[in-house]
Fold:
Amino acid sequence: MKLYYSDVLAPRKTCALIKHLKLPVEFAYLQLDKGEHKKPDYLALNPNGKVPTLVDGDTILWEADAILCYLAKHAGSDLWPAGDLQPEIVSWFSWNSQHFLQSGGALYFEFVIKERFKIGPPDAAAVEKAIKSFRSQAKVLNAHLKDRKWLVGEKLSVADFSVAVTLPYAAKAEMPIDDFPEVKRWHDQLSALDGWLDPFPQR
Ligand SMILES: N[C@@H](CCC(=O)N[C@@H](CS)C(=O)NCC(=O)O)C(=O)O
Structure:
């Protein structure tokens, strides 16, 4: 198995899961600022020209959440559990990609990516809008996590790896996570896992 990745947000959750499960995955780092993800060889694997992409024999998979499910299943772990928990997990994937990741991702872009790729200071209006959305979504998440250790069922699952992906950047990206104690407690649990705060392989 080979994962094409870079040290940015979407691949981050796949790298964290690989480290957590200690999977023997080969890594191929792509330099986004050199456009390595837009070269024909890579576009043949992932026509979106985005990271991550997983290749396992004839299977080529893009979309980080799908890669999480594939890795969890092929590792024989219970992080992508069978049965009625699966639609619940998909519901969190969908909620995250349409809502929580939009606001957390906007803050990550304004405070982390702009500094890293030297593309200007944070835009105050964009930050204010994203913080407002973040608060209303974190309220939903906080209420759901009350009396629950993890997002779905009784155990850690790929839903946790997916939905929390922006939270390691909460302090730097000014996400008001401290106002949502259940979200903070849940993210602290993830931070105790091997690989969550330091997910990327040595290069
Ligand atoms: N929905 C995709 C998003 C992939 C994505 O947008 N990746 C970003 C990095 S976080 C990327 O490759 N950006 C480079 C570009 O768009 O040129 C997933 O979850 O895998």
About this structure: The helical segments are 9-21, 40-45, 64-74, 85-116, 124-145, 158-163, 181-191. The first strand starts at residue 2 and ends at 5.
